[in-house]
Amino acid sequence: MNNRQCVYITGGSSGIGLGLAKVYAGSGADIVLLARDQVKLDSAVAICSRLAVHADQVIAGLSLDIMDYDGLPARLLEATASYGAPDLVILCAGVAGNGTFLNTPAAEFDSIVNINLGGSREVARALLPDMLKRGSGQVAFVSSMAGLIGLYGYSAYSASKFALTGMVQALRQELAGSGVSAHLVCPPEVNTPMIAAESRAPVPQTRFLKDLVGTLEPAVAAQKIARSIARGKSVIVPGVRANLMAWIARHFPELFARSSELLLRWRFK
Q1: Which of 13, 14, 120, 143 is catalytic?
Q2: Which domains does the chain have, with CATH numbers?
Q3: Is the confidence at residue 1, as pLDDT, over 70?
C-alpha cells in the first residue's frame, strides 16, 4: 500500500486534461485517465508513463462515456476497484460551441449544456460517496472564463459553464466540514484540439474578445491549475490578463458590460 496521491482526470487524453495528467505523473502521483477514445487514451498513457518517477506508479486509462448516465457508475466502480478511490478528481471533459443565439439549434444548445454540466455532474455524483466516507478529497470542476463572463457567440457554451459555476458554489456549501472540497477552474482560452476545431469556423466577435484575454498553452495552464488546487483555492483563474478581466467584471459589472459592447460596436461597425 502506498501513500501516493491518486488522481482521476476526465478528458485526460488531450488538451488541459492531458496537460494536467503530465504534471501529476511527473510529480509521482498515481493517475487514471478517463475518456472515450481508446486510441487517444493509449497514447496519453504512454506519454505520462515516460514521466513517471516510481517503478510501481499507476498510469492507467479507462474508456468511458460521461454521457452514459446508466453505465457510468459501474465503469467508475471498476476503476476504483482496480486503482483505488481518488484523492483528487479533475473534471475536464467537455465541448465548445461557437455560434450566435439565433443560429444555434435547440438540439445543439441542449447537447452542449448536457455534456458540460451533466457529464461532470454524474462523474462527481459517482465518486463523491467514497470521498465523503473517507472524509477527505478534492473535486475540481473545469469551467471557463465563459462561466464567469458571458461572451458574444457563446450563448450555449456560457449557459453550460455558468450552470456549472452555480452547481459548484452550491456543492461547496454542502461539502463544508466534510473534509472534501470542491474547486472551480475558469481558464481563458487554452490552445487545445477542441479550440483548434472551433477556430475553423469562428464567430469574428468571439475571436476578437478572446484575443483581448489571451491564449494559454496547455502546459502553462496545467501548472497554474495544479498549483492552485494544491493550495486549496476555491476559484482558479489561470493567467494574468484573465484574472484582471474577471476582477473588473466582478467589481464593475456595468462598466465591463458597456465597455465590451462599445468595443464590439467600434470593431464591427
Answers
A1: 143
A2: 6-267 (3.40.50.720)
A3: no
Distances (CA, A) of 158 to 56, 151, 186: 41, 7, 12
Query: What pTM, to 2 d.p., does this model score?
Result: 0.94
The predicted pLDDT at position 199 comes to: 67
Q: For residue 269, indicate whether it is catalytic.
A: no
Given the residues 161, 210, 224, 260, the one annotated as active site: 161
One-letter identity of residue 12: G
pLDDT tens digit sequence for 116-140:
999 999 999 999 999 999 999 999 9
Give the model confidence (pLDDT) of 156-205 as tens digits: 999 999 999 999 999 999 999 999 999 999 999 998 877 777 767 778 99
Task: Please give the grid coordinates belonging to residue 251.
Answer: 467589481
Catalytic option among 157, 210, 224, 260: 157
Whether 143 is a known active-site residue: answer yes
